[in-house]
């Protein structure tokens, strides 16, 4: 066992002792992360969708605390969140912040955050360096409510990126998350006691592999970079077997069977897998070998029908906004013999869409300026722009294909 590195005050430790209730008694809690039916009536499960939800749910969670707040931080630059935690501490709430020992390019910011928290009376712990990265993000309120997040506490993730968070009061899940927090705070080995949480490297590879294998009809995946060979083979096998597999993000190996597109409407940060429209994994780990086997990553599997439906709807909107299907269909229509080349062209096109988006915004702004502000209230403006862009894309693809054939 490694020597514990903790920066804390004896008075704070004594104040925190006895704050922890033995179980979740206020709510009928659910079981997540296994194959049992979705949570029972009376349980609480909420989905946070970024960038729409913002920080309001996080601030509300902190404000609701009566006894304790335990928060795991990989990155934080929201002053409102920092202030809320300091305020809670000043009001006698036992606030403990477990801060990553390092992150890419931001170690000095983490150390400065530690100092500011200590000055505010917050108990501060620093993660060990036995894993190559501590990348999980979560917050536990009064040992009754867990915020399990795919996004960091930073403006880039919350304001400008696709991210999800799960808020749950499931006793089993909260207790397992608290067990993990305590182990990492004290630099002790964490051993998964249930399937309630998907934790790297403790059980993530086994649980996520099983989750993917059990798909019967469909897998909708958000992942910035899928690169694990075993996982890629599972996805390839599913696609070849006729399952509907779609990936928003990227994949290391080229595949003629897996439709893959970047997220073009905003930055992609979440790691999410939606299975058969009935269950979903939300977490911080990509399907890459280091994130499954060498880093601390945390995720959860949920089965709540409304939550999963909202995730599916968000995925479908993001997929449609990428233009993948329209571009593929246009290319196939002109030359159905080159589906592999079409997929390559689609990926290349998607990379060029960001500058086009900026140009399009400027053009629309100028058009509205000339037409008058009342044009914004005209519902036809949106459909007109959509039609013009759609027609222009189809004509451009047709002209390029014709030019290539003539050449």
Can you walk through the features of this model?
The protein is of the alpha/beta class. Helices cover 43% and strands 21% of the residues. The protein has 14 helices and 17 strands. Strand 3, helix 3 (79-90) and strand 4 form a beta-alpha-beta unit.
Short description:
The chain is an alpha/beta fold. It has helices at 10-16, 56-64, 79-90, 107-119, 155-160, 171-185, 204-213, 229-240, 289-293, 305-322, 324-334, 339-351, 353-371, 380-406, and strands at residues 6-7, 45-50, 68-73, 94-99, 123-126, 133-134, 138-141, 145-149, 161-168, 198-200, 218-226, 244-251, 260-261, 267-268, 271-275, 279-283, 295-302. Strands 1, 2, 3, 4, 5, 7, 8, 9 and 14 form a nine-stranded mixed beta sheet that branches.
- Identify the CATH homologous superfamily of the largest domain: Endonuclease Chain A
Strand fraction band? 15-25%
Average pLDDT, all residues: 83
> What's the total helix number?
14
Q: Characterize the quaternary organization of these chains.
A: single chain
Helix/strand-derived category reads alpha/beta
CATH class of the largest domain reads: Alpha Beta
Outline the low-pLDDT stretches.
1-42
Strand tally is 17
Amino- and carboxy-terminal Cα gap: 69 Å
Radius of gyration: 23 Å
Q: Give the biggest beta sheet.
A: 9 strands, mixed
CATH fold-level label of the largest domain: Endonuclease, Chain A
CATH architectural designation of the largest domain = 2-Layer Sandwich
Number of separate structural domains: 3
- Globally, the shape reads globular
Give the fraction of residues assigned to helices: 40-55%
């Amino acid at each position: 066992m490694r020597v514990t590195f903790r920066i804390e005050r004896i008075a704070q430790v004594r104040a925190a002792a006895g704050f922890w209730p033995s179980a979740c008694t206020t709510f009928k809690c659910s079981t997540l992360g296994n194959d049992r039916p979705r949570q029972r009536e009376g349980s609480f499960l909420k989905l946070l969708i970024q960038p729409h939800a913002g920080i309001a749910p996080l601030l509300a969670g902190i404000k609701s605390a009566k006894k304790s707040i335990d928060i795991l931080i990989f990155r934080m630059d929201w002053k409102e969140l920092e202030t809320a935690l300091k305020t809670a501490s000043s009001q006698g709430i036992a606030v403990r912040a477990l801060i990553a020992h390092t992150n890419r390019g931001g170690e000095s910011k983490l150390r400065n955050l530690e100092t500011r928290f200590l000055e505010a009376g917050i108990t501060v712990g620093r993660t060990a360096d036995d894993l190559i990265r501590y990348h999980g993000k979560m917050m536990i309120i009064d040992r009754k409510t867990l915020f399990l997040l795919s996004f960091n506490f930073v403006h880039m993730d919350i304001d400008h990126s696709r991210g999800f968070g799960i808020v749950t009061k499931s006793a089993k899940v909260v207790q397992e998350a608290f067990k993990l927090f305590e182990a990492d705070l004290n630099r002790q080995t964490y051993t998964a006691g249930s399937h309630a949480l998907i934790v790297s490297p403790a059980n993530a590879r086994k649980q996520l592999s099983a989750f993917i294998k059990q798909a019967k009809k469909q897998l909708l995946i958000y992942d910035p970079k899928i690169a694990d060979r075993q996982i890629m083979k599972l996805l390839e096998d599913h696609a070849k077997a006729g399952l509907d597999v779609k990936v928003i993000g990227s994949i290391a190996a080229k595949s003629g069977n897996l439709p893959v597109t970047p997220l073009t409407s905003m930055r992609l940060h979440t790691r999410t897998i939606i299975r058969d429209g009935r269950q979903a994994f939300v977490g911080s780990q990509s399907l890459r070998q280091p994130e499954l086997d060498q880093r601390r990553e945390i995720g959860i599997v949920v089965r709540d029908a409304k939550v999963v439906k909202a995730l599916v709807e968000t995925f479908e909107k993001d997929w449609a906004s990428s233009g993948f299907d329209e571009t593929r269909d246009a290319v196939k229509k002109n030359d159905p013999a080159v589906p592999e080349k079409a997929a390559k062209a689609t990926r290349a096109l998607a990379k060029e869409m960001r500058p086009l988006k900026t140009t399009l915004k400027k053009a629309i702004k100028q058009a509205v300026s000339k037409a008058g502000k009342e044009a914004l209230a005209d519902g036809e403006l949106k459909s007109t722009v959509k039609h013009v862009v759609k027609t222009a894309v189809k004509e451009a693809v047709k002209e390029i294909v014709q030019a290539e054939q003539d050449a």
